[in-house]
Q: What sequence folds into this?
């Protein structure tokens, strides 16, 4: 993994990064107010991710994102500077870029108010700092590809905050009946935001078996992604 030199001041000419070519690393701007933490994150990320810029506060983060326009921004929730809005403020000040730049919150906090605030602002996911380097790298790739990614148990906060009448939708037995008991177990965990590795550990099965079950679930329910599966499960009060 390679990194660029120190961030260029906002007043200098901009040069947006184009992101990864097919099969190449995903360009990321890393935003956190602790230098040692940023150093640790960069050391933990694998070859799928290329940190092309860094920032330590709201204003410098906005400047870096606007200058580099990376595919993904790894963003701490609590940041100094700006008007005191932290990570949510960074996203709000870059809303015109959300079609091409996606924000993934990376925070020590798993408080519902923090999760909801950044998702409401426009973030595509939220993971805690307990995540491993390989899993964080995978999350970056997923977000770059358009998926929503959450650490286990955090997806429920978002579904509660942004649900659209889910509590009024009855479970459709005919759809559930298409799934075996094991497929239903896997479906619920995946829909809650668990990684394949976490599902395998929870159910004492192999990651390959989890992948097989997820493929079967998506095929039987005629869904195309984990994000659609989460919405499907939430609408039926299955989480």
A:
């Amino acid at each position: 993994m390679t990194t660029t030199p120190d961030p260029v001041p906002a007043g200098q000419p901009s040069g947006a990064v184009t992101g990864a070519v097919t099969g190449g690393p995903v360009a990321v701007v890393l935003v956190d107010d602790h230098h040692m933490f940023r150093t640790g994150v960069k050391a933990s990320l694998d070859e799928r991710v290329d940190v092309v810029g860094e920032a330590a506060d709201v204003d410098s983060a906005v400047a870096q994102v606007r200058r580099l326009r990376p595919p993904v921004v790894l963003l701490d929730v609590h940041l100094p500077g700006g008007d005191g809005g932290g990570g949510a403020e960074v996203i709000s000040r870059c809303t015109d870029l959300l079609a091409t730049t996606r924000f993934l919150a990376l925070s020590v906090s798993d408080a519902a108010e923090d999760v909801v605030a950044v998702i409401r602002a426009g973030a595509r996911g939220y993971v805690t700092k307990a995540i491993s380097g390989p899993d964080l790298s995978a999350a970056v790739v997923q977000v770059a590809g358009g998926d929503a990614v959450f650490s286990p148990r955090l997806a429920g906060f978002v579904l509660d905050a942004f649900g659209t009448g889910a509590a009024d939708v009855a479970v459709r037995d005919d759809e559930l009946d298409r799934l075996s008991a094991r497929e239903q177990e896997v479906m619920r965990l995946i829909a809650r935001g668990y990684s394949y590795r976490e599902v395998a550990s929870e159910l004492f099965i192999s990651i390959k078996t989890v992948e097989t079950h997820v493929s079967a679930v998506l095929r039987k329910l005629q869904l195309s992604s984990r994000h659609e599966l989460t919405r499907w499960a939430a609408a039926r009060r299955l989480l």
Notes: Residues 207-221 form the longest helix (15 residues).
